[in-house]
């Protein structure tokens, strides 16, 4: 029985197009060693199908918060990525009964050692081959330092790992993480990120620039490119009462980045989990369109707006005034808008 599993697993690993043709030549040496180790570990167990027969889109490790009720953090990110075809393995940095905007909440907080224990467990079973790492809210310097160790570990297995980082630190001029985290993000996280998705306030913290115009937003993107990530999306910039997304894709190290904006209509309501959802959608669509960040952003924005409008509609149907409180997004009910969004918000490329 074990020999039968071993043979089929080896055949799957050797012949599957994702593993045979999509791994760059420069990664072959590391990948072959990892593959040999995996084959040995599978001699006495069934194949790990998420590795032996991986999704055509990718395999994501998502380190974010979790709530039992409601949609924030991993609850906002995992389901949409799965709908877009990704295998997603969540690690919950916190596990709370509900988000902290409610009158009370209870739960547990994962520390850096516990995070590393999970990673070591995966490593012991040769389960650390990921195409993407996604991180969101992180509440302590020690945990963020461990996340950086995770990045290094994952890239030792797959040097082509794409790290998508939402540097959740605050909004509208207010920090809601310890101030020490800002320098860690600026000095250590930004340089190793592949894609960064800050809001306006977070982009200002990371660059030291005050963003009061579109040109300021573009310059902030340029400064972040110099620090590390090839793709930067400032997900919301408020300029003279208008809301914009500004994106920038630097395809070559010494090249000029392709930059664009998308005007976003303001909705008179406050929602939870939208930033987490937006970053997940940007990861999902940018990987499907790796050379066209503008198209990926159009799909992500259009999908998010559809979710928000459905949420507003459903609260009104329930007889609730959506302007009076924060709203839990209607994620499950919007799955068609996540899989196949109708593009209603177009990117305007800067010359």
From TrEMBL:
Start and end residues of each Pyridoxamine kinase/Phosphomethylpyrimidine kinase domain: 135-241
Gene3D superfamilies in the cross-refs: 3.40.1190.20
This protein's record includes keyword Transferase: yes
Entry's Gene Ontology BP terms: pyridoxal 5'-phosphate salvage
Family the UniProt entry places it in: Belongs to the pyridoxine kinase family.
Top-level taxon of origin: Eukaryota
Keywords, alphabetical: ATP-binding, Kinase, Nucleotide-binding, Transferase
An example Gene Ontology molecular-function term: pyridoxal kinase activity
Designated name of the protein: pyridoxal kinase
Record-linked Pfam families: Phos_pyr_kin (PF08543)
UniProt-listed Enzyme Commission number(s): 2.7.1.35
Cellular component terms (Gene Ontology): cytosol
């Amino acid at each position: 029985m074990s020999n039968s599993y071993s043979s089929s697993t080896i055949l799957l690993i050797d012949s599957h197009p994702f593993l045979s043709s999509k791994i760059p030549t420069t990664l072959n040496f590391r990948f072959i060693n990892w593959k040999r180790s995996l084959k040995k570990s599978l001699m006495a167990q069934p194949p790990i199908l998420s590795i032996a027969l991986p999704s055509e889109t990718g395999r994501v490790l998502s380190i974010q918060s979790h709530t039992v009720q409601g949609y924030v953090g991993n609850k906002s990110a995992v389901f949409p990525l799965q709908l877009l075809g990704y295998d997603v393995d969540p690690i919950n940095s916190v596990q709370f009964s509900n988000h902290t905007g409610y009158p009370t909440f209870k739960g547990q907080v994962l520390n850096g050692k516990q995070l590393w224990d999970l990673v070591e467990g995966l490593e012991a079973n040769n389960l650390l081959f990921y195409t993407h790492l996604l991180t969101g809210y992180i509440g302590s310097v020690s945990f963020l330092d461990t996340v950086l160790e995770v990045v290094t570990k994952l890239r030792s297995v797959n040097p082509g790992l794409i790290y998508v980082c939402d540097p959740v630190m605050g909004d509208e001029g207010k920090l809601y993480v310890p101030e020490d985290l800002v320098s860690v993000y600026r000095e250590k996280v930004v340089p190793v990120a592949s894609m960064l998705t800050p809001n306006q306030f977070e982009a200002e913290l990371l660059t030291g620039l005050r963003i009061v115009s579109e040109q300021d937003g573009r310059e902030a993107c340029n400064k972040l490119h110099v620090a590390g990530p090839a793709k930067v999306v400032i997900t919301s910039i408020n300029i003279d009462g208008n809301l914009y997304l500004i994106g920038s894709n630097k395809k070559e190290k010494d090249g000029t980045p392709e930059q664009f904006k998308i005007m976003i209509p303001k909705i008179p309501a406050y929602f939870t989990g939208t930033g987490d959802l937006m970053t997940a959608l940007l990861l999902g669509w940018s990987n499907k369109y790796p050379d066209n960040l503008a198209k990926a952003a159009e799909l992500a924005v259009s999908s998010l707006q559809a979710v928000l409008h459905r949420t507003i509609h459903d609260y009104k149907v329930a007889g609730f005034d959506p302007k009076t409180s924060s709203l839990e997004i209607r994620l499950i009910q919007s799955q068609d808008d996540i899989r196949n969004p109708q593009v209603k918000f177009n990117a305007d490329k800067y010359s």
